[in-house]
Specification:
The protein is an alpha/beta fold. It has a single domain, classed as Rossmann fold (3-Layer(aba) Sandwich). 41% of the residues lie in helices and 17% in strands. A five-stranded parallel sheet has the order 1-9-7-3-4, sandwiched between helices. The protein has a three-stranded parallel sheet with strand order 2-10-8, with no helix packed on it. Strands 5-6 form a two-stranded antiparallel ribbon. α1 crosses α2 and α2 crosses α4. The longest helix has 22 residues. The chain starts with 5 loop residues before the first strand and ends in a 5-residue tail after the last strand. The model has no long low-confidence stretch (mean pLDDT 91).
Length: 177
């Protein structure tokens, strides 16, 4: 996937699906903790494998404003902040950088195949230049299935001359990695 290393702790299965949906759609705190713990482990692995020792910016995959209103929460930014809170005592400063914004209407992707998802996501994000000049950008999502959202995030970041060093998630579909 664009030659960026992907770090995750679980292959996607029906249990992962239930946990992601429970955290995302119902705001279930236990499910949120499970996902943030998993993403934290993925981040620790990325830091160790890539030998990162400078400030890290977590770039979150955005949900649509209507999804956030419907759910009453911004799921991925909640998870990112929980991950950062688990690193309070770390020597590496980690920031939440929600610099990706949705720039066009996109369909719910749950019923779309890979080709449809890629088409749906094409041109969907706009990146906003962050105030800090963090070199170690890591894209964060709760789940990677086809990689369409990640590919679009990389494209949007490249338009403002930013390049992530890695991608982290709680779970991923192995066949699409």
């Amino acid at each position: 996937m664009n030659n960026f290393p992907i770090y995750f702790t679980n292959f996607y299965n029906s249990d992962c699906a239930k946990i992601v949906l429970s955290a995302k759609e119902n705001g279930n705190l236990i499910a949120q903790e499970l996902l943030s713990d998993s993403i934290s482990k993925s981040l620790k692995f990325a830091i160790a494998k890539l030998n990162l020792n400078q400030e890290i910016g977590l770039v979150t995959i955005p949900s649509s404003p209507s999804s956030i209103r419907k759910r009453g929460l911004d799921h991925i930014n909640i998870l990112s902040k929980k991950v950062i809170a688990s690193y309070i005592s770390s020597e590496i400063k980690i920031n939440n950088l929600p610099i990706l914004k949705i720039s066009k209407k996109i369909q719910d992707q749950s019923k779309l195949n890979k080709a449809q998802r890629l088409q749906n996501m094409s041109g969907a994000y706009q990146a906003i230049k962050p105030k800090s000049s963090t070199k170690n950008l890591i894209i964060v999502d709760d789940l990677i299935t086809t990689g369409a959202s990640i590919q679009e995030a990389v494209r949007a970041l490249s338009e403002i001359n930013l390049r992530p060093v890695a991608i982290i998630t709680a779970c991923a579909v192995g066949a699409h990695l």
